[in-house]
UniProtKB/TrEMBL annotation:
Name this protein carries in UniProt: MYO1H protein
GO molecular function: cytoskeletal motor activity
Record Pfam families: Myosin_TH1 (PF06017)
Top-rank taxon: Eukaryota
A GO cellular component entry from the record: myosin complex
Organism: Chloropsis hardwickii
TH1 domain location: 47-217
InterPro entries for this protein: Myosin_TH1 (IPR010926)
Amino acid sequence: FLMQTSEMLRKICMRNLVRKYCRGLTAERKVQLQQKVVTSAVFSGKKEGYLQSLSQPFLETRLKENDLNPKVLQLIRGENIKYVTPVIKYDRNGFKARERLLVLTQSSAYVVEVAKIKQKIEYSTLKGISTSNLSDGIVVIHVPEDNKQKGDVILQCEHIFETVTKLCMLANKQSLVKVVKGSLRFRVGSGKEGTMVFTVGPEPQVFKDKTGQLTVV
């Protein structure tokens, strides 16, 4: 009987401590924890660098709304901007690297070039999000095969865990994130596909190899 009473008291005490901790959390801290739980579900034990990212809090955004060109703000007016980060976009054909911004709103992802919107992906049409199991910052956003889209979006992000977590949470498509090994296929457009190969080397680099594949080291 004493053992049962002790166990009951222990559970009650633990429950009260948890309740007290939860009530003491700020709104910002709650958001951080929610995001980190999603990051864990997607990346834990799958992608290199995940453990090192645990101690790094996610920022609300890497750039403020005021940092965007007024023309871009006008084009996406009416949408609530949630997250903006600088990215490198790789062309689907020649794989030329181009500086862009990734803008995530409540309903869509935008790839932005200064004052132009280069591509818009509505979350409702998002087919998948792929990244490798290595320590690179490459993410591929897979889009549907229709006339509105030029093909899948190949991006390099400095804060890969943060960016992918924000994207899949806003899109409510956590289950569509895939961490791949070796290589992945992406859609170039007009029914064509390309291949991206992931490998390990002495220094990080991204280039088009002799076979025409995009190689990520």
